[in-house]
């Protein structure tokens, strides 16, 4: 990933110390409950519950604001402090966040830690138009998917989409006016965060009709912005009803 430097509030950080965040006595250690949850990162529900209560460190780095190029050598005149974002070759943008100062130093020993609650870090990621957050990028490099970033920013409980009541209700609503669908089930998809909608349809539909049916259902699900935010991917399976 490449590095880009931004001030997430649109204001210069120059001359400001990163203090007054409510963590003035923070010793830089990982949150104890988050440390326990990270021992079983496969339990994404438990991890997200711990993250929602945790303090994270957002890296702040110095960037050249003004330079004097009148002489033989470029002379630095002033610098700003800026939030860092990462960009993958695919174009996906990420906000790096860290659990402790040791993990931050392993990535960039010159970066300054700004301690914030997880929801504020997620809100900063959204403000910077980041798709994901990456936890401890130099060590564990755990990616928090878009649905997770959204849930943290909204202070909302996170659940896998196939177990999410809001998503399940949206799917039921999306198929309500489709007479060819006898039943719709929500299942875990093949990719992390993916929702698989299994449509039980009446026999006799052509392949083209089945594709059009799935497309209509997908478009109906996508009309609700909150439902889109809770799903990291959408796939369909079609089975015969009865």
Give the low-confidence spans. 5-20, 64-68, 73-79
- The tally of beta strands, per DSSP, is 10
Count of structural domains: 2
Helix content: 25-40%
3D shape: elongated
Number of helices: 8
Determine the N-to-C terminus distance. 50 Å
SSE-based structural type: alpha+beta
Note the run of SSEs as H and E.
Answer: EHHEEEHEHEEHHEEHHE
Main beta sheet, described? 7 strands, mixed
Name the average pLDDT: 86
What's the Cα radius of gyration?
A: 22 Å
Q: Proportion of β residues?
A: 25-35%
Keywords, please?
elongated; 2 domains; Alpha-Beta Plaits; single chain; 7-stranded mixed beta sheet; 3-stranded mixed beta sheet; alpha+beta; 31% strand; 242 residues
